[in-house]
Amino acid sequence: MPTQEIELKKNPTSGARESRRAALRQWWSAAWSDGGALxxxxxxxxxxxxAGWHGMANWIKTVLATAAMAxxxxxxxxxxxxxxxxxxxxxxxxxxxxxxGHVITAVHATLTEPVHAYLAAHSEALPLxxxxxxxxxxxxxxxxxxxxxxxxxxALRMTWLVWGALxxxxxxxxxxxxxxPVAAGxxxxxxxxxxxxxxxxxxxxxxxxxxxTGTLAVYQPHITVHLPPTTVSTEARSHPTT
Length: 242
Hints:
Layout: H1 3-10, H2 12-32, H3 37-55, H4 58-92, H5 100-122, H6 130-151, H7 154-174, H8 180-198, H9 234-238
């Protein structure tokens, strides 16, 4: 009996491991051969610098766009947290009198504390903790606000509208029963004021102008009627009228 068969009988799992390793080596060789999956991806990476953004492979664009969006959201979240922290520290240093600082502090607490309470109450059974959910809420609002103001993108504007509606609903749900109308009203007013920036340049109807002149293009339709040609019958030609 060959030594290999004796080894397989003594340790049957070693044969399965060897077969898996052989299959893995075969797949690896086929993937890096001409036309293989990994070889094609490597060629896409090599051609990307010369091809530019429009000529590179779609999967590279997807990876780069996803990484850039994740970095942007993280940056906005960190910046928003730092901004709110600095504003809160600045407002806390203002004496508690009935002045502009006290009003801003009260409005900020009225808008943010119900959101904190709502997220804490509805994220207890989730892996997503309340601070992370609050940071995501901040990042979404700031991204939609800044993106709608700078780019006038309709998708970002729609995100801003949905974000504001959900924020007002969360404030209404988490605010005390006796203070719900005031808290929701303050949220709606703040949302409307911020919407003047996020919805900048939004019009109900757009007028089209001709290129270069700035005048309106006027279209006048014309109706053309094609009449059949007039023919004279053979009998009329053979017997002319006298």
